[in-house]
């Protein structure tokens, strides 16, 4: 008898559960509607009108029904995307905990000294060139270049009209080696820009496109800029490094709580 | 007994209350209201004249760990690391150092917006996370609550503040921060972007990348908000109304099952009207023509007279190798033609696209050299990340087994080809993926304003991965000798239009449009075979297509009978995976006038520049590992560049 009663009560409880407090009861609160509205406003810059809001709610209810059904079926288990979201969230929280302190001037100086190479400005050159295309063949271009070089006085520092039309510029100001190779390739020409005598014509030198005469007007050796001129960048890098270190430590502290059993390696 | 049921109810109550509610707020299927606050988009201005525009190369499509699929593939590269790799800095990937062979000029990380998290949950007091015990402790702020939180997480507490806690709690914030932190005007431009992953009802790919002119933008509108492109455009409108320019760039039309460049609208599959067409062209000025999952220019089925159309084909739905993607409606060349037809009916052209190229790699490493790819959707540093011989062997023989394979087929020595793939055995295997593409564009400076402006005016081209430099101008008065003028570029801008534009109105005395075409080889790459103009024009109710060779290397001429030029030859050494630049040309500059111009017929002209043959990535991978060169895919490819078109529209005489 008692068992029957218990059974009935359980059954009745189940019904009440289903109709009032259950998984199958979805309550739309004003706060939740406000949140939907705010989310829309963030994307679209304006709150939704009434009809749009009703659609938002409708779709949200649709999603919530599927979401709850999915949870009831325990579909969140072993799901890579769910796992990833949770991993990311935890990571964010973990990282947020460790805001590094502002560096002092001496810490910044020490950091800059330790990473000096990262901030060094490479060698730069300003130059002009005369181009001889390969249209009539390699040796014809070379011969023309040699002959023009003989006629180039010391006066002119640019003379594109004495050669052929080039597919890029004739004059380059303050170019780093990397910028030169992007235009002319990893070629003899690109090396010559940083080794040819300054202030006079030289060549011919070969690029990816043909033969050139070269006039390097100025060249600056690599420069280590003063910290003051790079303060913001160095500070950002310092903080980023400190944050990375702190994040690594925060994870290590957390990982210490866990035992990792490698059954794959057990014999 | 009553007690029992109360307990029961209480338990259920707790259980019900603990269900999360409304994880992320949703946008609308059809946002109706126009934004209340309108602010103008600042116009790009520069004092540098157009003649001084320079070429810049960049990546327009790349995924990092923030994309749900990339994460599943094992990618842990962050957006910040991806940008650093793109600008040529060394980064650490899975314990090895990776560095790009040459730095990009500009780049956009385009993670899938789906599941990226639409809202900063900690910033929103009503978010579900904020209501949790942990969230409330964080929101309560102050050192004490963080100690509580830290204890909960079993980490050593350190002082910090609430603002900092909220700052990085949101995936979109992470994207914006990476975009901001890695921007170096003059040297490296970052573009804030994401991918909207919509699809057709039949499962065809309708994905679009969304790009913003600013390094700050509202939370992304994802395909979870709406799967219909027209709704994405509503979002773009609302972003622009807030003073931030935004465009969408469709990609992988080749895998759209004919849906991408359809005759009809996406919503409702209705015929387009003029307002719709104008809007579409405004929202989507560009489209992606080449990437890791094939090219979307054309296929032999659509362009039977194009002997170079059989190039890096990927003709099925993504991840469904036996579901073929219908050719009609899937390719850009046909879309250029369809655009003319639609314009003749409704008065505007929806497919007035410029073109871009990209990798779409999913490991955060943007690469485009053939030797920086070894299958899959991943860029590599060939110096440190080359796959082992065993992995290479698998890639080159079986590839990724098609989904239809039997469970034990992957381990069988012979690949099992699904019946639908008999004509194309590599379909659905790793072998059909490409070493990917690049975007080239002409801009005054390498900064965000100039790069975005170049994209908007479509002064762009796409390459299959090499740095071919191409520029094209159209006009009416260019005399053939103009290119001997050292300053012809200035005149070309003054008297004509660059690629991506409409021809100016035809002067009465002009007979046919003239084009200046210039192409220079990749400075560290292969010589050029030829430049071609691909012309499509309206003819009756349909369009026609014709290809003209306008510059050929060497002494080749066009055969009068066939209308074609001989192949350039082939210097590839398949044993060593090398080639020699003993054939081909280093550069072309030429002026071309359309010999078949009909003043009454609308036309569109775009160019294709071909390199001489070089070894394909699959050949390089085989050679590096002493393996046989794979069958079923060409051992060499002719890398190429496609430029944005120039359009001719007759003046209406009614």
Note down, in words, how this protein is organized:
The complex is a heterodimer of chains A (267) and B (654). Chain A contains ten helices and four strands. Chain A has a four-stranded antiparallel sheet with strand order 2-1-4-3. Chain B has 654 residues and is of the alpha+beta class. Chain B contains 15 helices and 25 strands. In chain B, the strands form six sheets. In chain B, strands 1, 4, 5, 6, 7, 13, 14, 18, 19, 21, 24 and 25 form a twelve-stranded mixed sheet that branches. In chain B, α5 runs antiparallel to α6. The longest helix of chain B is centred in the first third of the chain and has 16 residues. The relative contact order of chain B is 0.11. Chains A and B meet through α1, α2, α3, α4 and α8 of A and α1, α2, α6, α7 and α9 of B.
> Outline of chain B, from the CA principal axes?
globular
The pair of chains with the biggest contact is:
A-B, 82 and 96 residues
Taken from the alpha-carbon principal axes, the silhouette of chain A is: elongated
CATH architecture of the largest domain in chain A: Roll
The largest β sheet of chain A comes out as: 4 strands, antiparallel
Count of beta strands of chain A: 4
Low-confidence stretches of chain A: 13-20
Integer tally of domains of chain B: 2
How much β-strand is present in the residues of chain B? Answer: 15-25%
The overall average pLDDT of chain B, rounded, is: 85
> What's the helical proportion of residues of chain A?
40-55%
């Amino acid at each position: 008898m008692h068992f029957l009663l218990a059974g009935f009560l359980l059954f009745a409880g189940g019904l009440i559960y289903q109709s009032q407090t259950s998984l199958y009861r979805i309550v739309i609160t004003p706060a939740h509607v406000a949140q939907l509205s705010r989310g829309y406003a963030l994307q679209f810059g304006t709150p939704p009108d009434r009809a749009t809001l009703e659609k938002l709610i409708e779709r949200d209810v649709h999603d919530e029904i599927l979401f709850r059904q999915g949870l009831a079926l325990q579909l969140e288990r072993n799901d890579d995307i769910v796992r990833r979201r949770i991993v990311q969230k935890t990571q964010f929280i973990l990282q947020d905990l460790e805001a590094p302190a502002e560096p002092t001037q001496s810490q910044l100086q020490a950091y800059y000294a330790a990473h000096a190479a990262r901030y060094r400005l490479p060698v730069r050159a300003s130059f002009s060139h005369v181009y001889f295309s390969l249209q009539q063949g390699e040796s014809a271009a070379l011969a023309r270049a040699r002959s023009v070089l003989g006629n180039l006085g010391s006066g002119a520092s640019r003379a594109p009209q004495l050669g052929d039309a080039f597919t890029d510029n004739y004059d380059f100001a303050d170019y780093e080696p990397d910028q030169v190779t992007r235009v002319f390739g990893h070629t003899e020409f690109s090396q010559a820009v940083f080794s040819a005598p300054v202030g006079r014509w030289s060549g011919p030198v070969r690029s990816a496109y043909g033969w050139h005469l070269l006039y390097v007007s100025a060249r600056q050796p690599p420069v280590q800029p003063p910290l003051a001129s790079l303060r913001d960048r160095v500070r950002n890098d310092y903080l980023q490094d400190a944050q990375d270190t702190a994040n690594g430590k925060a994870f290590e502290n957390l990982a210490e709580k866990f035992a990792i059993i490698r059954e794959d390696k057990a014999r | 007994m009553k007690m029992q049921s109360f307990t029961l109810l209480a338990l259920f109550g707790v259980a019900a209350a603990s269900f999360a509610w409304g994880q992320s707020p949703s946008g609308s299927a059809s946002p109706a209201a126009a934004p209340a606050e309108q602010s103008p988009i600042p116009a790009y201005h520069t004092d540098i004249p157009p003649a001084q525009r320079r070429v810049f190369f960049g990546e327009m499509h790349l995924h990092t760990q923030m994309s749900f699929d990339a994460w599943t593939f094992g990618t842990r590269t962050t957006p910040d690391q991806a940008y650093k790799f793109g600008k040529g800095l060394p980064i650490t990937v899975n314990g090895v150092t990776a560095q790009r062979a040459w730095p990009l000029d500009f780049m956009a990380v385009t993670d899938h917006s789906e599941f990226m998290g639409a809202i900063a949950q900690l910033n929103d007091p009503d978010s579900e996370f904020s209501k949790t015990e942990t969230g409330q402790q964080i929101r309560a702020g102050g050192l004490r609550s963080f100690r509580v939180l830290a204890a909960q997480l079993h980490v050593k507490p350190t002082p910090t503040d609430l603002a900092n806690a909220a700052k990085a709690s949101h995936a979109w914030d992470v994207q914006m921060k990476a975009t901001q932190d890695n921007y170096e005007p003059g040297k490296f431009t970052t573009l804030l972007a994401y991918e909207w992953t919509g699809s057709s009802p039949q499962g065809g790919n309708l994905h679009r990348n969304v790009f913003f002119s600013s390094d700050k933008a509202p939370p992304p509108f994802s395909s979870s908000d709406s799967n219909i492109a027209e709704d994405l455009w509503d979002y773009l409108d609302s972003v622009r109304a807030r003073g931030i320019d935004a465009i969408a760039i469709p990609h992988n039309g080749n895998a759209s099952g004919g849906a991408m460049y359809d005759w009809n609208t996406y919503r409702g599959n209705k015929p387009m009207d003029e307002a719709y067409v104008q809007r579409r062209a405004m929202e989507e000025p560009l489209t992606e023509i080449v990437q890791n999952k094939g090219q979307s220019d054309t296929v032999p089925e659509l362009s039977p007279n194009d002997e170079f159309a059989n190039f890096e084909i990927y003709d099925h739905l993504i991840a469904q190798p036996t579901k073929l993607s219908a050719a009609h409606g899937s390719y850009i060349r046909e879309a250029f033609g369809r655009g003319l037809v639609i314009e003749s009916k409704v008065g505007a052209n929806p497919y007035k696209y410029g073109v871009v190229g990209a990798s779409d790699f999913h490991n955060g490493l943007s690469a485009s050299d053939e030797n920086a790819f070894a299958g899959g959707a991943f860029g590599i540093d060939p110096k440190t990340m080359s796959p082992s011989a065993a992995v290479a062997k698998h890639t080159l023989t079986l590839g990724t087994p098609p989904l239809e394979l039997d469970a034990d087929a992957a381990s069988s020595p012979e690949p099992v080809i699904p019946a639908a793939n008999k004509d194309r055995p590599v379909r659905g295997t790793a072998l059909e993926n490409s070493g990917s593409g690049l975007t080239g564009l002409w801009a005054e400076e390498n900064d965000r304003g100039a790069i975005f402006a170049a994209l908007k005016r479509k002064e762009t081209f796409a390459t299959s991965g090499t740095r071919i430099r191409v520029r094209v101008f159209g006009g009416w008065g260019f005399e053939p000798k103009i290119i001997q003028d050292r300053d012809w570029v200035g005149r070309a801008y003054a008297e004509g239009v660059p690629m991506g534009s409409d021809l100016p109105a035809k002067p009465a005395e002009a007979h046919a449009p003239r084009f200046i075409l210039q192409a220079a080889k990749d400075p560290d790459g292969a010589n050029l075979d030829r430049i071609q103009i691909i012309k499509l024009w309206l003819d009756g109710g349909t369009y026609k297509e014709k290809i003209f060779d306008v510059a050929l290397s060497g002494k080749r001429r066009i055969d009068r009978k066939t209308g074609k030029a001989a192949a350039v030859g082939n210097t590839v050494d398949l044993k060593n995976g090398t080639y020699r630049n003993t054939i081909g040309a280093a550069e072309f500059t030429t002026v071309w006038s359309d010999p078949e111009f009909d003043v009454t017929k609308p036309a569109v002209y775009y160019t294709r520049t071909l390199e001489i043959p070089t070894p394909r990535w699959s050949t390089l991978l085989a050679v590096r590992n002493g393996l046989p060169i794979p069958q079923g895919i060409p051992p060499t490819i002719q890398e190429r560049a496609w430029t944005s078109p120039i359009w001719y529209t007759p003046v209406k005489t009614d």
